[in-house]
Amino acid sequence: xxxxxxxxxxxxxxxxxxxxxxxxxxxxxxxxxxxxxxxxxxxxxxxxxxxxxxxxxxxxxxxxxxxxxxxxxxxxxxxxxxxxxxxxxxxxxxxxxxxxxxxxxxxxxxxxxxxxxxxxxxxxxxxxxxxxxxxxxxxxxxxxxxxxxxxxxxxxxxxxxxxxxxxxxxxxxxxxxxxxxxxxxxxxxxxxxxxxxxxxxxxxxxxxxxxxxxxxxxxxxxxxxxxxxxxxxxxxxxxxxxxxxxxxxxxxxxxxxxxxxxxxxxxxxxxxxxxxxxxxxxxxxxxxxxxxxxxxxxxxxxxxxxxxxxxxxxxxxxxxxxxxxxxxxxxxxxxxxxxxxxxxxxxxxxxxxxxxxxxxxxxxxxxxxxxxxxxxxxxxxxxxxxxxxxxxxxxxxxxxxxxxxxxxxxxxxxxxxxxxxxxxxxxxxxxxxxxxxxxxxxxxxxxxxxxxxxxxxxxxxxxxxxxxxxxxxxxxxxxxxx
Length: 482
Hints:
Blueprint: H1 2-12, H2 14-19, H3 27-60, E1 65-70, H4 77-88, H5 90-94, H6 97-126, H7 135-143, H8 152-160, H9 163-175, E2 200-202, H10 207-215, H11 234-240, H12 242-250, H13 252-260, H14 276-279, H15 288-293, E3 297-299, E4 301-307, E5 320-326, E6 345-351, H16 367-379, E7 388-394, H17 396-404, H18 423-441, E8 447-451, H19 457-478
Parallel strand pairs: 1-5, 1-6, 2-3, 6-7, 7-8
Antiparallel strand pairs: 4-5
């Protein structure tokens, strides 16, 4: 009876059924199965031994310096991580050019898609008659009275650029794993991707290898390593549509529509419409700056390890570095806390150019106000009281361009008052706002603050070298070696 009961439990257990030998297994098959299981156990034990060896070696050796990159989504964290990679692992960074070539192609197509979508909405609204029973339609129609008319030439241009939408779908399908939720709406081959759904990849999903297969090579370090004869290369379609894309971007009516909509793609990451001749050429290979500017939203945690050749005073304690990049969306910020306990420093990126923008996750929240609140939560967190803080007031190039174009900071930050609407005054004011939060909530902390544009490799390299030097020296002081 007990045996029967155990048999029923075994039958109800999916794991037991999965690992149970086949009922009609021969003695030869049994020997093969047991040998395979023994080999699998040997491999598993070897992996465990290697992990333990690494763990022991890390305990005996100098402790790694760990840096955590924090900030809201699109603040520049991933670009900062790319800069660390470019500085310390340039060969590995450049071996990924094939992957980033495909991402840049996706960025170009998505920028054009956004403009074509605006043209469609304007054209549709111009042919929609308001009804007295639909107040929202009345408001929509009245708001569209100032739009310049869409001409027949614009509609023809839109039709000629339609193949780009299929290139976008092809790139997205290669980028995302099979069965991904964002692919569910692309069952129809003629359907394009909804613009409101930004593509996001998991940092551990191996998307770079996928794109390498798309290009046909493992590396893209030089033009000789790309299979230019690949008939499915998206670059062929982009090159064929290049003149029409340039015509679309330069069209004065399109510019006016974008101005009315306050649509400024040149201020967003992944903007390449000002370099179409180059990025749509048949033999285009991304430069380092192109890779830094490329936009791909990542989920999960990205870790980059590198070794510094030398450190201050020639100390061996500075050789092992780890930089972590975590997602900045509101829904992902709870995942930051487990990393707080063992970090030497936090680089917090605040995009100060976004004073006139709102969060994608919550359209009622100003992005700069969200950065202030996020910074406050970091500096007041007791788990971080011994962690060095480095503040990057980022996207200064965009802030300068916005202010010079006449967009007033005081219209969005009332406390700015009647101060001059120039970069020098605005940047100093915003720096004081961030430092005041630190003094209020953690008055004894030292702060390293830098004005940055992390898409500019040369200036960012100098800043990161300075940060690395400061952190190494601080690490040595704590170890009583300086």
